[in-house]
Amino acid sequence: MKHLITLENWSTTAILDLLDLADRIKAKPADYREAMQRKTLMMIFEKPSLRTRVSFETGCTQMGGHGIFYDLATSPLSSGKENVADLVRVVSRYVDIIMGRLFEQAHIEEMAALASVPVINALTNYEHPCQILADLQTIREKKGALKGLKLAYFGDGNNNVTHSLLFGCSKLGMHISVACPKGDEYEPLDTVLAATARIAKKTGSRVEVTADALEAAKGADVLYTDSWMSYHIPQHKQESRVKVFSPYQVNGKLMKRANKDAIFMNCLPAVRGFEQTADIIDGPQSVVFDEAENRLHAQKAVMLTLLEAAGK
What we know:
Elements lengths: L11 H16 L12 E6 L5 H12 L3 E6 L12 H8 L5 E5 L3 H10 L4 E3 L7 H15 L6 E5 L5 H12 L3 E5 L10 H14 L3 E4 L2 H5 L4 E4 L12 H8 L6 H4 L7 E4 L11 H4 L6 H22 L3
Parallel strand pairs: 1-2, 1-3, 3-4, 5-6, 5-8, 6-7, 8-9
Helix pairs in contact: 1-5, 1-12, 2-12, 3-4, 5-6, 5-12, 6-7
């Protein structure tokens, strides 16, 4: 069974094929309005969502399928009367494909190991592959190609988006520079950096982590940032994290270090005055809403690719 759990185990060719499909779906959505006819997607949510739920449910509906929203907070799992293993074994007999937005990567991996239908990682503490597929689609739309481009990421390096960006960029021969504070709390996981270094040797990508935001921005084609307060960060840490991450705010000074035609990206939600200034996210170089839209098209492509691989 083919799943989307991490971009690490998807080949360069598989990613590019999926992006090509996403482009075709976006260009001619009517051609795919029956592609999921009589197919059911189960969406299992442990973490709150706006873009993930709406884009997956809308995408499924637009292709003739049906999406079921299942909140783990109100399920028998929360009371201890059910377990993940039993849940997945049961629903695999009801639905055609499962999507999970969960706290722990281990739980989505357990689901994939037990499911008899495809499983999609719609976000965990480790990776956010669906977001990065939409990001790659957006970058290619704006730049015409991916290989050889430089993406500079600023802020919290130890999060799911950063890890998936590292895998996605290195797989496709893009250079990536992660600018973040020093220390295990803020830097990408060593295991991810080791894996992407191996991938980069094969694809010609450059992967670096630096504490120097201005150096990371130099010559960048894409400037990218994410929330300083991810879902798992307690609110009482906000003041200290703002101080730590302020040198990595994407602002006019940082943008001037990048290439003149550089684009700005944020996977949203975004707080103006934190990760980026308002003039950047609302300015002419920002593509954040095109990026958000492409979640719909890229995830349609994910669902169709996995369903086809499963013979459904």
